[in-house]
Design goal:
The complex is a heterodimer of chains A (about 140) and B (about 180). By secondary structure, chain A is an alpha/beta fold. Chain A has helices spanning about 1-20, 35-45, 45-55; strands spanning about 30-35, 55-70, 75-80, 85-95, 105-115, 125-135. Chain A is built from three helices and six strands. Chain B has one domain (about 25-185): Lipocalin, CATH 2.40.128. Chain B has helices spanning about 1-15, 75-85, 100-105, and strands at about 25-35, 40-55, 60-65, 90-100, 115-125, 125-140, 145-150, 175-185. In chain B, a hairpin with a 2-residue loop joins strand 6 (about 125-140) and strand 7. The chains are: A alpha/beta (about 140), B alpha+beta (about 180).
């Protein structure tokens, strides 16, 4: 009995704390929206959109504004049709540049919120997705 | 007339950071933190730090979403957001301030030999604190490279650490900001 108790007290928390993140590619998105649509939703009503989207898996489509690369691999993408209102996504696993073709992209990732404040010098608004994966149609 | 033109051109060449408002900006800076204790080291990073500096006035800001910090372990990330940072209530961490010794930096051509002193307000967990951040602000091509490392005491920002995990979380957490700022169009 003591052994079982020790297992529950020590091994279970250890296993839970050691777990990594689930694979985004295997997850289903709660919402599918365009990049412009989700940024506009936050600009229109940040409180309501935060409640709706934050911590949810969101699938976002739109024009590629910028790809970020480390060691030749794509680690992040910015989706936007204008310069200052953007969906900024980091990939869970770096991608080969060959995985991305054309000027449009669809990704899904966990929405971590919106950065944008009219009283700040920081321009525009950014919706952030983390642990994103590329969605191939 | 030729002499006057020559003098004007020469004087301009020695004041590359003159009066015009010049802002530099990034959405892809990195902010990371490291908590070291004998029991456990905890680290996380966020590669979506936004930062802007106005070289004509010295105004300097950076901001990051707390939920954009990524941890290797999922449960640790959950505890960080839910139990300590309460990031649904306080989603952003920001610094807004001003470089105090801008003229000295300009005189030294924003080289790595001078340290910028950024003084302003840091807001974490909804708590504002006046801080001074020694910052490296170095001219880098068309833009600027900004790096600074500072310590944050959770108690200064009313971040409650339960007794059960106090020996696992450092009293002072080292935070590093690293950003390459490009001219704002």
């Amino acid at each position: 009995m003591k052994n079982i108790l020790h297992f529950v007290l020590f091994a279970v928390p250890f296993v839970l704390l050691s777990c990594g993140h689930s694979e985004m590619a295997d997850e289903e998105a709660a919402y599918a929206v365009s990049g412009d649509e989700i940024v506009q939703a936050f600009l229109d009503n940040e409180q309501e959109s935060s409640a709706k989207y934050i911590d949810q898996i969101i699938q976002v489509s739109g024009p590629i504004m910028e790809l970020s690369k480390e060691n030749g691999q794509v680690t992040a993408v910015m989706i936007s049709s204008d310069e200052y209102n953007i969906v900024s996504c980091t990939f869970q696993h770096p991608l080969s540049p060959d995985d991305i073709s054309g000027d449009q992209i669809t990704v899904k990732g966990v929405c971590s919120g919106f950065l944008g404040d009219a009283s700040s010098m920081i321009p525009g608004g950014t919706v952030e997705l983390k642990r994103s994966s590329l969605v191939t149609q | 007339m030729k002499k006057l033109l020559f003098t004007l051109l020469l004087s301009q060449s020695f004041v590359p950071f003159a009066d015009a408002q010049e802002r530099y900006f990034t959405r892809e800076g990195e902010v990371s933190f490291f908590s070291a204790t004998p029991v456990e080291n905890i680290e996380a990073d966020n590669k979506k730090l936004q930062s802007v500096i106005d070289i004509s006035s010295g105004a300097f800001e950076f901001a990051a979403l707390v939920k954009s910090f990524e941890f290797e372990k999922a449960l640790m990330e959950e505890h960080f957001n839910e139990n300590y940072m309460e990031s649904n209530t306080y989603p952003k961490a920001t610094f807004r301030g001003k470089i105090q010794n801008l003229e000295e930096l300009k005189a030294k051509g924003f080289s790595s030999s001078a340290t910028a002193m950024a003084k302003g307000v840091m807001t974490i967990h909804g708590v504002e604190q006046e801080v001074e951040l020694p910052t490296h602000l170095v001219k880098d091509g068309d833009g600027f490279k900004v790096t600074c490392t500072f310590n944050v005491k959770p108690q200064d920002y009313k971040i409650a650490i339960p007794n059960a995990v106090q020996d696992k979380i450092a009293k002072e957490i080292e935070v590093t900001v690293d950003a390459a700022l490009n001219p704002m169009k």
